[in-house]
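Entry 0007
Protein: Diacylglyceryl transferase
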Amino acid sequence: MFPTVSHFISYLFGIEVPLPFNTFGVFVALAFLAAYWAFSKELQRKEALGLIKPTKRVTVVGEPASTWELVSNGVFGFLIGYKLIYALVNYKLFVADSQSVLLSTKGNLLGGLGLAALFVYWSYKEKEKVKLPTPKKVEVTVRPHELMSHMIVWAAIWGFLGAKIFDNLEHWDTFINDPIGGLLSFSGLTFYGGLICGGAAVLYIARKNGVKPLHMLDVGAPGMMLAYGVGRIGCHLSGDGDWGIVNLNPKPFSWLPDWLWAYTYPNNVAGEGNPIPGCVGKFCNELPQPVYPTPIYEVIAALLIFWFLWKIRTKVKVPGVMFGIYMMFAGVERFLVELIRVNSKYNVAGIPFTQAELISLILFIGGILLVAYSSKNKDKLANY
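Output (structure tokens):
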């Protein structure tokens, strides 16, 4: 396993490069980049077809930097400098436990003040370059794909919050014992929580800018599946605990690699299992028995579904159908994986189920209903 990027570099090249980046976090960032690419391509395609249109916005140019701009840039610069300089001065500690460094109140005051002053000066000078004797109002055209930077930031913020909330609900007993740790920890993220909250943020921004919900949902279908597949690579490589149940069954095919059938996740970032003899460092545990490597199965399934959705996207003409298909595929994929995945179970009326199984079922049924509704109302939605 590669809990950090440094472990991965050491494995590939045999050299030790101390870097404060965990593998899971890097792949989450790559997942957002993948979503950004797919979303942008689809927004551009739909705009070219006239299905979504640019919007006009009136803005004022030539104004000097406002007090709010100077203050907000100063605060932002202070936070970055406060943590960044402290992290650089205490680099070994930062590499060993970046989460504790980032989430603690410790920092470098001089570094914070210095970067705050730099950010304020930069904001002031940039505004001075375009300052006019008399500021004027101008109308600008905003194309849908130009909103992606704004959307991706809010999707990340609300997606993270949603993922944490759903994870803590799923592991309520652990959360009650340590609520602060549960909220602030970078580990423990539930995909469906991120999907629901992050998706709601994107729909809100799109709606404010004239992109109708069904079209925005269709735009997001392939990109969300691609991002999910990329993110799951990080889950597997880091060993974040999203693995399956114990698998002691013999391989069905002799050519199948052991790690693709049953794996013990050595050096997993979750710290689960028994200590590895002779291992030194923070990530020195290995599962006592091999388990199904379910993240890899989800990577394969998600990328295949993305390929299919990407192929059919130009053929689906009715708004809402594309997202309905995505919902059905996403629901089935996750429901099947849950059958061999370790997870907390609820029990209602004697029926055991996981949070993901329940949401998967809702997704699948919702997908059927959305496709049926869109197909039934295709004439009305043709000009939607």
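Curator remark: The chain has a mean pLDDT of 87. The CA atoms of residues 37 and 223 lie 8 Å apart.
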